[in-house]
Amino acid sequence: MSEMNRRRALQLLAGLGAAGLVAGCGSDDDDAPTDSGTPVRIGLVAPTTGALKPIGTEIVNGFQLYLDLNGGRLGGHPVELITADEGENARTGQAAVDGLLKQNVLALTGVVNSAVMVAIRDAVEQARVPLIGSNASPATLQSVVYIWRTSYVLNEPGEAMGSYLRQQLPAASRVAVIAPESVGSRDVVEGFRNGFGADDPRIADPVVWTDAATNPGDSAYTADIQRALDRDPDAVFCFFDGQAAVQFIKQLRRAGYQGPVYGPGFLTEGTVLGEVREPEATGIMTALNYSADLNNTANRQFASVYRKTHNTSPTTYAMASYDAAQVLDAAIRLAGDAPTAQEVNLALGRIGQIDSPRGAWQFNQSRTPQQRWYLRKVQRDGEVLSNVLINELATLG
């Protein structure tokens, strides 16, 4: 966040009132220790270069906004936020985490790429430093002690959409499934098949797997899309994000397919709708744990300040990072005047329900959110295309 944006956020905070903006995390403030003033270091891992940079920017913005609205403190302690570039692959992400761990950070947050999350698992667990991941969350990440996630598990958006389409699509319809061959995609597709019914004949087999490049060219998916369309589908379920989503949507429409498209919300989240023309994206339906137009107090306040600070609506990436700061705030406060990484990790299990812009949620035994999932549809909202909230799909986790 630029210095100008920080000033704007603080001005908005003053105008709206601090008491109304800071969401409660379920801790007992009457029993909490007072501000000690002892600085703490937090390491934030996010792509600041490469094709995943737009998502990384949202991750940074969300965390920084919470800091700005809380005087630059977490749990009463001034925060030194150290950001490391995750890059685009497991090697660069692991180097970023290793560098932060050498700087004596109290906790880590961020991580966009599921391959990075898998690669850093052992380093984080061995260092005994809590990581509050705010995006990447592969289903294979099991039996962890120090890794928490404020986002989701990647099979959940597929499961939520699969359950919905199982009820909505006619018995004679046919769904083509297409996705990049990656850790995250396999989780999403598996969740979709579980939600829809793995043996349901409406799912066209096999899955069409594409290249997993984060910045594909303008014909990268042409052959794969044609393979999917050769099955004469009535609907397409897919999983892409960022620049890959932009290219996939454009190439799918260019191939002549004008039918319904479904997927996790990442397909149309962030900067995607700014790069895809209205006829191409209009009508796409997605499942996600957040919509910027959710009508609850925490979201009205969060989304209002975010829009006025960054001149754009917040995404699930920004929201989950904002919540990562929120749960760290509560945990560090519970850990006391001189918190250690291990004490903060123990406190994370005690913070209870989080009053989040997505709606109230809490950590489950897997250290991931038990939360609601929503159905969204791309349509014009005023002058711009938006992911408009349609209804609630399910509570998962």
UniProtKB/TrEMBL annotation:
Residues 39-382 form the Leucine-binding protein domain. It comes from the Bacteria. The keyword Signal applies. Coiled coil: none annotated. Keywords: Signal. Pfam families: Peripla_BP_6. Belongs to the leucine-binding protein family. PANTHER family: LEUCINE-SPECIFIC-BINDING PROTEIN, PERIPLASMIC BINDING PROTEIN OF ABC TRANSPORTER FOR NATURAL AMINO ACIDS. This is ABC transporter substrate-binding protein.
